[in-house]
Amino acid sequence: MRADLSNAVKSEAACMVPSLTSPAASASEHFATDHLLANLKGRTVSGVFVTSASQVAQFLLNLTYIMVLARLLTPRDFGLFAMVTAVMGYLRVFKDAGLSTATVQREGITQAQVSNLFWINVGLSGAITLLLAACSPLVAWFYREPRLVGITLTLSGTFLLNGLAIQHSALLSRQMRFNALAGITIGSTAIGMAVAIGMALLGCNYWALVISNLVTVMTMTLFTWLAIPWRPHAPSRRSGVRPLLSFGANMASGGFIYDLAVETDGMLIGRFCGAGPLGLYSRAAALLRRPMDQFLSPIGSVFLPVLSRVQSQPERYRRAFLQVYEAIALITFLFTGLLLALSYPVTLAVLGPKWDAAAIIFAGFTLAALTHPLTCTSTWLFATQGRGKDWVRASSIVSGITVCSFLVGLPFGPAGVAISYSASCVLLQLPLLYYIAGRQGPVSRKDLWIGCLRHLPVWGVVCGTSWLARTFILDANPWMQLFLCAPVGLLAGATYIGFSAPSRRVAVNLLSIIRDLKNARPA
Q: ∠ CA 197-202-205 to the nearest 5 degrees?
């Protein structure tokens, strides 16, 4: 397969035009996946190419968005928005009900099955929209903030809009149409951000965040329907959808339990500390989580279909997973070490001087960021191996630990919550998830631990070197500190990688992929 990689990648890249539309296709073309196996590695590399390019674009868009809005709006504006999104996080998993993962993971699926899943998603999303709208007075009462009624009513409509596109997006992922998925995300994100900045300039305050979120979801749904010509049939009986619902129910249950836990921090801080501290907390978290999600989400969208297609080939599955897993571990350790050492200048440079109090919160979250990509990647084992029950079990345990960590840190304010949560991620959550994820299937617990620990020294080298370099220029402005210290830390990390055989091997593989991508670009 390696010998055919260049031709396969060139063939894929030649089709990567920045268009959301596709020619009409028969229903079977949307469901069949056998044709993907012949050039699976080529499709994977080309998928990495297009998703990497899209993530660079999204990173620049988000960086501009954060920097501009942080200077136009106040922490209280962001806090009001975060209060409602924290409540929405509890319900978000039910609009999907795990059925998109079922569509992607299933080796064989039919028009009737996907149509039934579509209507189930729409029904659940509509019900959640009505439920959240009806509870808007309760949300305002809980936070003691009457302005939340209008915000909650407006944002409730995003659930129904999202539900209309879940199965269409799943089919795009199943067919590994990453160029279409990237175009949808970038286009809708850019439009939503433009709306937010325009409204903020007009003095709309927190409504700039609310309306831009609604516009983003609305545009994404429209673009998704334009990208794939599949249309659902009327609901039918005896379609064989029960196994998909069972798997989806387990995935949704685990997701709900986890979301219930991770959204608790925002509700606790909003309820007991107020909108201002919550605004600081949510911006510090977003400053780290958004780039990380942009890094992980597209990789997951590429490799979940890949791993699902080779689930019946254990050794091929294990090899593919570990190559990606170790690459993610190395990149994560390299950059989280840098962010911890330079957390103060990063916060001030991006958000501005009025967000000074968010720096310690951001620093606390960098320790959680050390493990988040590893835990996220490990959950692929549950999804691609059809281990829904194991995911529920793992999610329940991890979620209980998460909530306890929030409660322990709450008396110490937002910074205490961030630090307590990070400590639980490193000391408890990651080991427990490895224990459950690696106890069956081609990837073992030993594989997970070795793939993690062999690259951990990179984090220490980068963090220590960057911190030491910053001690010599503490009086410089934040941008100058970043400009001088970040290259020093990265150079130290690159030097270590050159001397460490396991890390050097991963880096060489990444460079090989980059060369393939370079050769695959259209002239």
A: 75
Place of tokens 């509890």: 90
13-40: average pLDDT: 46
- In angstroms, the CA 473 to CA 485 distance is 9
Q: What is the pLDDT of residues 462-506, one digit of tens each?
A: 999 999 999 999 889 999 999 999 999 999 999 999 999 989 998
Is 124:183 a contact under the CB 8 Å cutoff? Answer: no
The whole-angstrom separation of Cα 8 and Cα 40 is 9
Of 244, 193, 198, which is closest to residue 216 (Cα–Cα)?
A: 193
Judged by DSSP in three states, 170 sits in helix
Give ∠ CA 87-89-90 in degrees, rounded to 5. 75
> Any residues with CB less than 8 A from the CB of 414 and at least 6 apart, and which?
269, 273, 277, 278, 280, 281, 284, 361
What's 503's DSSP letter? H
Nearest Cα neighbor of 363 from 401, 416, 427 is 416
Tell me the CA distances in angstroms from 139 to 78, 84, 260, one per residue in order: 16, 8, 16
Q: Are 331 and 493 in contact (CB under 8 A)?
A: no
Q: Tell me how far apart the alpha carbons of residues 124 and 95 are, in angstroms, rounded to a whole number.
A: 5
| CA–CA gap between residue 338 and residue 396 (Å, rounded) | 32
The token pair at 249 is 């129910």
pLDDT tens profile 145-173: 999 999 999 999 999 999 898 888 888 87
Q: Tokens at residue 329, please?
A: 């571990």
How far is the C-alpha of 114 from the C-alpha of 111, rounded, in Å? 5
**HEC profile of 109-150:** CCHHHHHHHHHHHHHHHHHHHHHHHHCHHHHHHHHCCCCHHH
398-415 mean pLDDT? 92
**Alpha-carbon distance 52 to 514, whole Å?**
10
User: What's the angle, vertex CA 53, arms to CA 48 and CA 58, rounded to 5?
Assistant: 120
Dihedral sign, Cα of residue 261, residue 414, residue 157, residue 380: negative
Q: What is the DSSP letter of 416?
A: H
Per-residue pLDDT at 247 = 65
DSSP letter for 425, please. I
Contact 218, 159 (CB under 8 A): no
Under 8 Å between Cβ of 359 and 348: yes
3 state DSSP class of 454 = coil
The answer to whether the beta carbons of residues 288 and 59 sit under 8 Å apart is no
For residue 487, which of 347, 290, 341, 291 has the smallest C-alpha distance? 341
Distance CA 348, CA 479 (A): 9
Quick one: which of 251, 257, 255, 281 has its CA closest to 403?
257
